């Protein structure tokens, strides 16, 4: 029993460590292309190197990091084709979630969706991108909440979990940078959100699915182009 308990405790610590490192990568605190030095991570998280080593293996298996010759573990830089493939799948799943949400949408939920769009509209000219470790911007939080609210309305946890897994393959701060870099993309993003809300309000399931699908595909294309422009210069460390 003691051995089993120790094993469970060790596994829980590895999972917790992997989640902590993943959160730092997703926020941009550890940027894409950066080296992941076990000693530094152990000191930062206040634990030994053993769970760090196991957590890095877990993140490597998930595709978020890779091990390169002479550099060791680094945050993996996705290729543009990977982004396009992932977003093609995500578009279909989010379209399904939006179609399902039509059956459960209420005035209160519509008002919350519009509230997230109000935040996006109020930040049409966002400040310069924050540095690593800075708080998540209201724009990013509002954009994420718009999508997760629809996932919740869909009422299918497996569907929502699969979408999350796709999202977690790519650092979230990069998506925020894409919006910050392109005023036209920000305007298009808001307009697409508003069309999705209109389709939900009209209880038009087919239109809601199509609008969400097109929205996610457009976002994926913008993200893929961002990686295309920066692949050669993104490595640090």
From TrEMBL:
One Pfam family of this chain: GntR
Domain HTH gntR-type: 11-78
Species of origin: Acrocarpospora pleiomorpha
Sorted UniProt keywords: DNA-binding, Transcription, Transcription regulation
Entries under InterPro entries matching the protein: GntR_C, TF_FadR/GntR_C, Tscrpt_reg_HTH_GntR, WH-like_DNA-bd_sf, WH_DNA-bd_sf
Protein name (Swiss-Prot/TrEMBL): GntR family transcriptional regulator
Gene3D superfamilies attached to this UniProt entry: GntR ligand-binding domain-like, Winged helix-like DNA-binding domain superfamily/Winged helix DNA-binding domain
A molecular function (GO) term: DNA-binding transcription factor activity
């Amino acid at each position: 029993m003691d051995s089993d308990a120790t094993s469970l405790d060790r596994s829980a610590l590895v999972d917790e460590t992997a989640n902590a490192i993943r959160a730092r990568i997703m926020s941009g605190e550890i940027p894409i292309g950066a080296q992941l030095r076990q000693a530094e991570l152990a000191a930062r998280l206040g634990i030994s190197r053993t769970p760090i080593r196991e957590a890095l293996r877990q993140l490597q298996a998930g595709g978020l990091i890779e091990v390169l010759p002479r550099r060791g573990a680094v945050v993996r830089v996705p290729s543009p084709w990977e982004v396009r493939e992932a977003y093609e799948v995500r578009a279909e799943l989010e379209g399904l979630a939006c179609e399902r949400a039509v059956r459960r949408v209420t005035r209160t939920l519509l008002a919350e969706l519009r509230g997230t769009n109000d935040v996006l509209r109020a930040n049409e000219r966002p400040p310069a991108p924050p540095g690593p470790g800075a708080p998540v911007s209201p724009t990013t939080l509002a954009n994420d909440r718009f999508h997760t609210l629809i996932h919740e309305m869909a009422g299918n946890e497996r569907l929502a979990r699969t979408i999350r897994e796709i999202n977690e393959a790519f650092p979230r701060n990069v998506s925020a940078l894409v919006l910050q870099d392109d005023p036209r993309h920000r305007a298009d993003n808001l307009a697409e959100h508003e069309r999705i809300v209109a389709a939900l309000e009209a209880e038009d399931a087919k239109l809601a699915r199509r609008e969400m699908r097109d929205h996610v595909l457009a976002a994926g294309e913008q993200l893929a182009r961002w990686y295309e422009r920066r692949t050669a210069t993104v490595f640090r460390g």
